[in-house]
Amino acid sequence: MAAIAETPIVADPAPTKKGRSKRALKQKNPSLNEANIMAGAVVEPAPVAALNSSGKENHESLSQPKSQKKTKKGASKAKQQSSEAFSFEKELQEMQEKLEKMKIEKEQTEELLKVREEALKQKEEEQEKLKIEFKKLQKIKEFKPNMTFPVSFTLKDLEQEKKDKKKGDFSKKKPSPPYVLWCKDQWNEVKKAYPDADFKEMANLLGSKWKTVSAEEKKPYEERYRAEKEVYLKIVGNEKRDHEALKLLEEEQKQKTAMHLLEEYLQFKQEAEIENKKKTKKVKDPLKPKQPMSAYFVFANERRAILLSQNKNIFEVAKITGEEWKNLTEAQRAPYEQMAMKNKERYAQEMEVYNHKKDEEAANLKKEDEELMKLRKQEALQLLKKKEKTENLIKKTKENRQKKKKDKGEKIVDPNKPKKPASSFLLFSNETKKNLSGERPGINNSTLNALISVKWKELGEQEKQIWKDKAAEAMEAYKKELEAYNKSVVETENKNQKQ
C-alpha cells in the first residue's frame, strides 16, 4: 500500500486533434490507473511525443482506404450512368419503331374500313332495289281472279272413262279376222285329235287345215267379220265426233277464260303501277349539284339556330321566321337576296359542268356501242364469207362430178341381159313365204323373215342340199344364157362396124 501511495499519479496527456483516433489510443495506451496498479511505475511524459507520432501514422493508415473506396464508387457510378443512358437510347429507338408500325397498321385498318363501308353501301342499295322488286312481285302474287270457271268434262276425264269401259265392254274391241274366228271354233277338235301338241304345232296344224277349207265354208266367218267391223266402225266414228266436239268446246272455253283473265290482270296491273308511282321515289344522282336556297331560306337558316337555342319548337320557329321575313324592309332583305343570287349563279355553273360530264358519258357509251356493233358486223360478215365459200365449194364439187359423169357416159343397162339367179336360201325363203302367208294371213314381214330364218336353221344337211342343187342348176342355166347373150352382142357390133 505504501508503494502505491509513494508513486505519483501521472495524469493522461490531452489528446491532440491531428492524427489521433480513439481506437488507436485505447489499443496502445491503456489507462494509467491500471498501469500504476499492475507495474507500480510512473509514466514519463516522453512517450507522449511517441504517441503523437504513432497517432499520425495510424491516422494516415486509416485515411488511405477511404479515398480508394470513394474513387471506386465514383467509377462504378459513372459506369452505371453510361449503361443507363445507353439502355434509355435503346428503349427510345424501340418505342419509335413500334410507333411507326402502329401508324402503318392504323393506315391499313382505315383503308380496310373504307372498303368495307363502300361494300356495305352497295349492299344496302342492292337490298333496297330487291325490296322494291319483291314488293312488286308480292302485289302480282296477290292477283286473284274473280271469275268462276264453267264446269265441263275435260278430255282427260273422257280418256279415263274410255279406259274403264274398255276393260268391261267388248263391243269396242277390234273385230277378229275370219281365220281367227275359224281357229276358235276348230281349236277344241284339233286339240282332241292331237292332245300332246304345243301351241306352235297347233298353229301349224290349223294353218294347214285352213288351206283345205272351201270358200263356202269360209263365207259365214267372213260375213261375221264384216258385220262386227261395221258395228265397230260406227262406234269409233261416234266417239271421234264426240271427241272433236269436246275439243272445240274446250278451246272456246279456254279463249273466253283467257280473255276474262287478261282484262282482270290489266286492271290489276294499272292499279299496282299507280300505287307504285305514289310510293316509290326516283333515285337521285349523288353527283348532281343541289338546288340553291332562296333568300327566305337563307334568312330562316340564320334565325333557326338562335330560336332553337331559346327552347322553341320547329312550328314556332317557322311561324316566327315567316312573320319576321314579312316585316323586313327591302334594305334588310337585300343581303339575303344577294346571297341567293350568288348561289343561283354557282348552281348554274355546277349544272353546266354536270351536264357536260353527262353528255361526255353518253357520247362515250354511244361510241362503245358503235364499236361493238362494228365488231359484230365484222364477225357476221366473216361468217357469211365462210358460208359462201363452203357453198361455192359444194357447188363446184357437184358440178365437177356431173361433168365427170357426162364425160364418162353412164352405162345403159340392157333389158335383154340375163339376171343372176337366186341363192339356195332365197329360193327356200320364196317358197316358205308363200306357204306362211297362206297359213297366216295378215302376218307382218318382220315376223315372216324371222320364221323363215328359224326354219332354215332347223333344216338338215340333206334338205339344204336339195336347195343348193336347185341353185347350182339355175347358175348353169344363167351361164349358158350369158354366153349366148355375149355372142349376140358381138355379132351386132360387127354388123354395125361393117355397115
From TrEMBL:
SMART domains, A to Z:
HMG (SM00398)
- According to the UniProt entry, which residue ranges have a biased composition of type Low complexity? 77-86
Residues in the DNA-binding region annotation: 172-240, 289-355, 418-486
Output the Pfam families linked to this UniProt entry.
Answer: HMG_box
In what residue span(s) does the HMG box domain sit? 172-240, 289-355, 418-486
**Basic and acidic residues bias located where?**
388-400, 407-417
Annotated region Disordered: the residues are 1-32, 48-91, 386-444
Any one GO molecular function term: DNA binding
This protein's GO cellular component annotations are: nucleus
Composition bias type Basic residues, residue spans? 17-26, 67-76
Residues forming coiled coils = 468-495
Task: Tell me the InterPro entries matching this sequence.
Answer: HMG_box_dom (IPR009071), HMG_box_dom_sf (IPR036910), HMGB6/HMGB13 (IPR044601)
User: Does the UniProt entry include the keyword Hydrolase?
Assistant: no
Keywords recorded for this protein, A-Z: Coiled coil, DNA-binding, Nucleus
Name by which UniProt lists this protein: HMG box domain-containing protein
Which species is the source of this protein? Fraxinus pennsylvanica
